[in-house]
Amino acid sequence: MISSIFAKELTRIFIALVFFLLIGRITGNWLASLGFVLFVYIIWIYSKLHQINQWIESGLLDSKRPASDGAWERLIFLIHQKDKKSKNRKAKTNTLLKHFQGVVRGLPFATVVLNDMNEIEWANTMSAELLQIKPKTDRGQRIDNLIREPKFHSMLLNKTENEIEITSPFSKEVTLSLRTLPFQTNSTLLVVRDISERTRLVSRQATFVDNASHELKTPLTSIYGYLSILKTSKNINKAEKEMIEDSFEQTESMVELIDDLLFLSRLDSKLMLNSLFETVAMATIIKKEADKSSNIDTYSEESLYLQAIKVEMQSLVKNLIENAVKHNPKGTKVEARWFSTDSGNGCLEVRDHGKSIPEEHLERLTDRFYRANDGDNVPAGSGLGLSIVENIVNRHGASLEIKSEKGFGTMVRVVFLLEHTLNRKT
């Protein structure tokens, strides 16, 4: 194929050379002969290029495909092949796009494609129901003109992928979950879901727990008080004293459980105003909690403070240290440390040198009422301690790490945000 192309082109060059020699011999003017032959050859090449250009502009129609041979035929063939492959790719892309749009249209949540100016490029049918977007007429509208919510504006501005919850701008009874995801180059995919039912269920659950806890706490507090008095009475025999002490311990556990449930209920309310934040001396809180037991070693950077909600930091430290003490044999060494990391973040670390936690339990330790059982005995506590810890950590934007190995013990580390860490070294 290639050799025949070159043969035809060599033939053309040979014919041009013959004409050059013939005209030169007849006229005796070799320069004029060369100029004439080159001029004719250039005109022929131009005509070929013009035919190809006309063919391309016509959309590569077969009826306007120029007849040619040699290198020109090869060039036309390659252009045709490229066009054919391009059309096949385009057809496949269009099929996939239509399939994708069909799938997205059928999704039970709103999906909107935004350009780099946050203007609507495409929206599915559910977006009309949840966001009142008209896909045809609202194309080109800025999405933040339709959803005027500060949290949403901040999400678009910072290009965060975190999910936010807002009240629908069109109905106060509807709660929406919004999330943005990168989509192609300079485009963003906005996904909006109606989570009103979930929000109502969570609210009912929190209300039930809160009410039940308050109703239980009043009689339990009375029982707890009477048992504490009876326990110190001298007018009871040994058997009665053992029963009263056992009842006192069970009642004390119930009171602690109710207190934990009430505290969790407050955390679940998600009320975390900046006005509640204050400068907290973590070293003082750790020392106060550690003084309750003789086997706790502490190390704290006295100059390191934290911008946080003080009552929640007290609960955080209390739960971490109590967990380390309760879930290990009496006398197990416990270490509580408050220090700054290499990057300057405040870090709270509580470690015990006792029993390790089996690996299969680690992922579920922060679940409510979950208690890891090593098979030796019934786990102590209500199973709410680490759940409270996780809630507090999340509310302060911190990170939680739990590590447990045989021969090492268990370590819980909380790393706080740099902007919440204050170092007052003098």
Low-confidence stretches: none
Task: Trace the largest sheet across and list its strands.
Answer: 2-1-5-4-3
Identify the overall geometry.
elongated
Query: Helicity range of the residues?
Result: 40-55%
Radius of gyration: 39 Å
String of helices and strands: HHHEEHHHEEEHHEHEEHEEHHEEE
Amino- and carboxy-terminal Cα gap: 86 Å
**Overall mean confidence score, pLDDT:** 79
| Major sheet characteristics | 5 strands, antiparallel
SS elements, strand count: 13
Strand content: 15-25%
Secondary structure class reads alpha+beta
Quickly count the helices.
12
Features:
426 residues, alpha+beta, 5-stranded mixed β-sheet, 13 strands, 17% strand
Structure in words:
The chain has 426 residues and is an alpha+beta fold. Helix content is 51%, strand content 17%. The chain has helices at residues 2-27, 30-57, 70-105, 126-130, 143-146, 150-158, 196-231, 238-268, 282-290, 310-326, 359-362, 385-395, and strands at residues 110-114, 120-123, 164-167, 175-182, 188-194, 278-280, 296-300, 304-308, 334-340, 346-352, 399-405, 409-415, 421-423. The strands form three sheets. It has a five-stranded antiparallel sheet with strand order 2-1-5-4-3, with helices on both faces. Strands 7-9-10-12-11 form a five-stranded mixed sheet, with helices on one face. A three-stranded antiparallel sheet has the order 6-8-13. Strand 9 (334-340) and strand 10 form a beta hairpin. The longest helix has 36 residues, at 70-105. The radius of gyration is 39 Å and the shape is elongated. The N and C termini lie far apart (86 Å).
